[in-house]
Solute carrier family 30 member 1 (Phrynosoma solare), 131 residues
Amino acid sequence: DHCAENITQMSARMNATELEKIPVAGPCWVLYLDPALCLIMVCILLYTTYPLLKESALILLQTVPKQIDIRSLNEKLRKLEEVEAVHELHVWQLAGSRIIGTAHIKCKDPETYMKVAKDIKEIFHNEGIHA
């Protein structure tokens, strides 16, 4: 035991009156109690905050929310009669449950733009994308 060795080495160098003046700290395991409790607290904090950290990181990285199927959404947009092509389809989560989407749509006829925009807005709304 290294505590006993330290006390033995100290007592060899000091006389009895000097040894009486040194306060005894208690058992040696007490020295490891504070770091052990700190590690336990860190583990508890990491375990309880991990879901929030993960959600925040995914929002900051602007990933596609897991409830949105981007391929299905792309196909629905392409199936509209007036749509010729879909470019730059982006969907991300802005905060909490607010999901944002943008798309560059090429219409077959520019005169049908307002009808296409209304249909696209409805498709986005049905998918849970509200802006």
Q: What stands out?
A: The chain has a mean pLDDT of 84. The two ends are 68 Å apart (CA to CA). The chain has two domains: 2-60, 70-127.
